[in-house]
Amino acid sequence: MITAGGPDATFPRLFARQVELTPHAPAVRYAPRPGVREEFDYAWLDAQTNRVARALIERGAGPETLVAVAQPRHPDLVVGLIAVLKAGAACVPLDLSYPPGRLATLLAAGAGLLLTGAYGAERLDGRHHLATLRSDRLLAADTSDSPVTDADRRFPLRPTHPAYVIYTSGSTGRPKGVVTTHSGIAELARAQRDHLAVGPGHRVLQYASPCFDAAIWELCLALLSGATLVMAPAPDLRPGVGLGGVVTGQRITHLTLTPSALDLIADATELDGVRTLVVAGERVLPSVVRNWAGGRTLVNAYGPSESTVCATISEALEPEATTVPIGRPIRGTTAYVLGEGLEEVPPGVTGELYLAGAGLARGYLDGPAVTAERFVAHPYGPPGTRMYRTGDLAHWDGEGRLHFDGRTDDQIKLHGSRVEPGEIEAALAAHPDVRAAAVSVGTGPGGGQVIGHVVAGPAGAPGSAELRSWLAERLPGHLVPVLVREVAELPLTPSGKLDRAALDADRSHVLPDPLEVGSRTSLLCALAAEVLGMAEVRPDDGFFDLGGTSMDAVALTGRINEVLGVDVAVATVFEQQTMAGVDRVIDQPFRRSSNPSEPEPAGGEHELAADSGTARFDHSHLLRGLFPGRTPSPERRHDEQPLR
């Protein structure tokens, strides 16, 4: 028996035990398109990962080394991650959909090897200087598939060794690598078995982006319990578009989603087969529980990356719940709600949430200063132990359950993703025509949103769209501000610190981009703004970036057909994303009517003011990163709690 906290509590040992128990049970199922599937059992997965692990060891991988894994959503991704862990190294999962510049930054952050396939090798060509191993070639080689043991590794693997590194947004302008250990994985797997009733015969959807630790949650939930991990291409996992088909067609029993993703599923029957639904990544409102708790087990999970994905989990929530706790600490984790003097506060009183226990990460990769700042001495534990300062506010209720109450610092919480302003500011300030930059948080029809503010250089600041394009080449999508404003100077507080509240209050000048007033594109923008309930929309704004849902797309095409008299399919909006793109595929030329019998758009609903010059916007950001869903409900704000 391998127990969490014991000397054998490493992922390879836990996985080997599961292979012994269920060698012929399906481990990974891949559904590239409806009606097509590939399935691989635990014995196959064990043999393949042994072969790749041996090749990694030959190239120097082992305990205290890092191996980047860059694979699309395919069983090869699972083979790569497990092989790295079997070699004793820590895996650094990458999302190949990220901008090349971002991928290059992560590859330069400490990994010694890159494990990828044909697609990843092409995508990353010239972006790094790492020694590269192609998994497709390794699997074709005649390598032994016998079990990998400590005798094969560079030195013995222990629970305290790193298992994976997940990058979160960093205040210095560079991402922070959270170094998580095998002991944390063992605690996580035990908690999943305790709370989620998972085992052989169940199917777990691999929904999260591979570079977020929610993907580790899903992998452990399935493969350390004897269940099946179901994978599908990312476009098939969009809530309200393809997700329901995958869940239904693949008979998913265990699913982890954000409340925002659930909001986009209009037909509740799409999840009828789901027995256990984990809601995480954001504050969970009672309406979510009311809509989705019936007929299944629904739990609310909370945890930063620094505590191995999950620190607390609620009991099964009832549909009539009026408040939604984040629950109690999982086994092996202790939670404290402390005041400014690190004193424990009584139930009902809000304080800062601190976490301690075996699930704590080792710290931040090559970041001793920020590690010391966030992982502090444990005043209530044995000498030498630490606790993690989450920066989240919480309180205990009278039944010993925790409730999330917001954030303490400048870190932005947007739809389940953690956003550090400094990282965005550094990228903005790197533009040659920007002298200084800052970001703030505003609210739009879809919830919280990041807004950029720049002080122009001598040549003047470029337009908002140009700056957002600049950022999109360097940052993941969820870090790109929805708009950029120009300010004369950045406001400061009396203490000399940046005054973000004053920034958000200053709506004086959105950097303009060219817009041909009176064109058909302008009319399409006005119709999109009408459907979304916004003041204005720009030609190059993504309709779904602005908060649009599949139902909004249906409404938009209806209005286009009504006003312009052209037949535009809903699929066109999904394919083109922007009004400029929709305009390009409309065959009928646009003319302003000079015939009084032909109706003009009514009032200001469909026409842009003749003196506007630009179409400004104020919209919610597309939910990306932690979970590949779309935009959250307007009720949800930027201070929501993460399963990070």
UniProtKB/TrEMBL annotation:
Phosphoprotein in keyword set: yes
Among PROSITE patterns, the record links this protein to: AMP_BINDING, CARRIER
What's one GO MF term for it?
phosphopantetheine binding
Q: Which GO terms describe its biological process?
A: amino acid activation for nonribosomal peptide biosynthetic process; secondary metabolite biosynthetic process
Gene3D superfamilies, per database record: 3.30.300.30, 3.40.50.980, alpha/beta hydrolase, Luciferase, Domain 3
List compositional bias (Basic and acidic residues) regions by residue number: 633-644
Give every Carrier domain span.
515-590
* Transmembrane domains' residue ranges: none
Q: Which UniProt keywords apply?
A: Phosphopantetheine, Phosphoprotein
Look up the record and report any one GO term of the cellular component aspect: cytoplasm
Q: Where is this region: Disordered?
A: 588-644
Official protein name in the record: Amino acid adenylation domain-containing protein
What's the source species for this entry?
Stackebrandtia endophytica
